[in-house]
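ok so for the tutorial part 2 we go from a plain amino acid sequence to predicted structure tokens. step 1 is just haveing the sequence, like this:
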Amino acid sequence: MKITLFTSNQPRHNYFINLLSKNCKELFVIQESKTLFPGLLPSNYNISKKLEEYFKHVKKSEKKIFGLPYINSKNKKLILNPLAVGDLNKCSTKMLKNFLQSDLYIVFGSSYIKGGLASFLCKKNALNIHMGVSPYYRGTDCNFWAMHDGNSNLVGATIHLLSKGLDSGPMLYHAMSKKTKNPFDYTMLAVKSALDSIVKNIKNKKIKKFKKVLQSNKFLIRYSKKKDFTDKAINNFFLKVKKLKYQKIDKNLLKDPFFLK
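step 2 — the prediction. this is what the tokens look like for a chain of 261 residues:
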């Protein structure tokens, strides 16, 4: 199987690249470069001491769970196209022609895809890995907000078909974390659950056999945006997780859930 992945450059993204490359014939990767120091350097987030503190915890958990993987440049299965953030939606499908001839397309951590490329990927039933449990949490930083709202049972990922609307495509299944005392490990393990589940379902050939379920806005708890991710919200998060009591996960709220072992 030939796979094309649209992704970013953090350790979790490199982990996924290495994992996928071991389980396909060829892997075409379009990788956008973002800062490794959010909160400290300009990015999608503001610069502040509180954000810097928060992301130090995030990076520590990411390193613990994924290590610091680097992409093997000698891997003959891998064809890499590095881009700066903002370049992707300036690229025509013609410019990306060699990366658009695969059997499976996956989007994980890239910028919001628009225009002709979005139309192409939707027609190809591209998969999107949404780090949040839809349809309850949509938008950005969803697992942060689930914890912030006291809904630890809704920390996870949604694997759904890519759509032109943000996180709104038909759902295939949910991937859930496993309980751990560290709330940052808990949310980062949800990422690992999503990535490992994708590879498992590629290997067992189930990835294209899931029944599609449309999302309903009547179940929406929060639609979050970057502007909502403020110092005040982070303070509230830290106060909540100090007294964290994990809620029991109700499988009836989920679609074909995969649980990380």
